[in-house]
Amino acid sequence: MKFRLLINQSYIRTKIIGIILIIIGISFFLNPTSLNIKLAFASILIGLFMIFMITEKTIPQNLSNAQMEGDINIAEKLISQMNLEGNAIFLPKSDTLSEERIFIPPNKLGIIKIPNIADNNIFLKGKDNVNYGLSLPPSGLKLLEEIEKNIDFENTNFKSLEEKLQIFVGIDLLKSISFKKLKNGWRLEIDKPVFCNNGQSLHMQYPCPTCSAVITAITRSFNKKIRIYYVTTYEGQKVTYYLNFIRLKTS
Predict the structure, then answer these.
(1) How remote is the C-alpha of 168 from its chain's centroid?
(2) How far is CA 199 from CA 76, 208, 239, in A?
(3) 57 in any annotated domain
(4) Which of 13, 36, 39, 173, CA to CA, is 20 to 30 A from 195?
(5) Is residue 149, in this structure, part of any structural domain at all?
(6) C-alpha closest to that of 78 among 141, 139, 119, 127
(7) pLDDT recorded at residue 51
(8) Distance between CA atoms of 47 and 40, rounded to whole angstroms?
(9) pTM for the complete prediction?
(10) Closest by CA position to 8, among listed 148, 112, 107, 216
């Protein structure tokens, strides 16, 4: 399964074709006629070019990092201005939400009910002007949409999801990923995610684009509300999320 996911990436296919061309070029040397030698050198040169030169990166990574960092900074300022202390709850699509959202409640404890949230709801205020929290699109939502051009996460069972999540490794967004069931929830381990320089506190409230894309993919797969219970980070390289799932009510 992981191999098939890698093959679906166009830059991986390009490298494979490059390797095949090099092998073909070497085979021409086994029958060293004047034409075969020319074809051999041509095949090998084109193969090397496809392996080392052709990529899909159209903008430098530092520029894309800066853009994503700007979005994260805006969210961080909103969370600070509203004095929100609660951990993120990822909400799946619904009758009122056309895309996933992150709900950040005002407090860590005592949250019993998630308010009704629609696409146009950002600052959640009650009629009595009570602060109910903040609703924002996940920072990795657009990233996930690009990934889903090659693989679909909707309505995926746990066994298939573990395999599908490896696509994040295959396209070099992270070094490794592990998603395991615990007694009272789930543990998600992400090693060396790109676009990730958030501190532990912000990881719990508004994760970086790569981590957010992974959790949104899980939300989309199971169609469940996901609460980040706790996060540990190791030297800015490995991030471990402890998640709780909330089953959606059915009408």
Answers:
(1) 7
(2) 11, 10, 10
(3) no
(4) 13
(5) yes
(6) 139
(7) 63
(8) 10
(9) 0.73
(10) 148
- Domain limits at 241? 63-246
Sheet containing 176-182: order of strands: 123-125, 131-136, 101-104, 89-91, 225-234, 238-246, 185-191, 176-182
pLDDT at 177 (0 to 100): 95
Which residues of the chain fall short of a pLDDT of 50?
2-3, 5-8, 10, 54-60, 62-63, 248-251
The pLDDT of residue 240: 95
Q: Where are the alpha helices (DSSP H) in 29-157?
A: 34-52, 61-81, 141-147
Does residue 215 contact residue 224 with C-beta atoms inside 8 Å?
no
139 within domain boundaries: yes
Task: Verify that 40 and 69 share a domain, yes or no.
Answer: no
Q: Are residues 232 and 210 in the same domain?
A: yes
- State both tokens at 216: 């949104």
Cβ contacts of 56-60, under 8 Å, gap ≥ 24:
56/10, 56/11
250 sits in the region (left: phi over 0; alpha: psi -120 to 50; else beta) called beta
The answer to whether the beta carbons of residues 215 and 242 sit under 8 Å apart is: no
Same domain? 176 vs 195 = yes
> How many domains are there within the chain?
2
Residue 41's CB is within 10 A of a number of other CB atoms, namely: 13
